[in-house]
Amino acid sequence: MNQAIFTRLAETGRPRIAFTLDSRPVEALAGDTLLTAILTQAASVRESEFGDGPRAGLCLMGACQECWVMLDGHGPVRACTTPLEAGMAVRLRRRHAD
Questions:
Q1: Sheet containing 24-29, strands listed edge to edge, beginning at the edge strand earlier in sequence
Q2: Which candidate, 50, 51, 55, 84, has a CA 20 to 30 Å from the CA of 16?
Q3: How much is the pLDDT for 5?
Q4: How many CB atoms lie within 10 A of CB 24?
């Protein structure tokens, strides 16, 4: 997986929450959205279907289509508006392996 593009600078004392990202066990913090949790672990959320590269969210308020991920047991969800919960199994939408 590519290097994370978010670096947490504040609120580092919140409880840690375990989840899986593309079958890899990772952690984020309580109160994170899926988008924040993912981008502290990876460089993007998905690759564009139109061939213009990786995507990492755009509007951050649920209005665009840039942050859709697959949440096992729930199907596709917008990562920017979905709160992280312990045990979530998230799959990024990629055409190629990192």
A1: 24-29, 16-21, 89-91, 68-71, 75-78
A2: 55
A3: 86
A4: 11
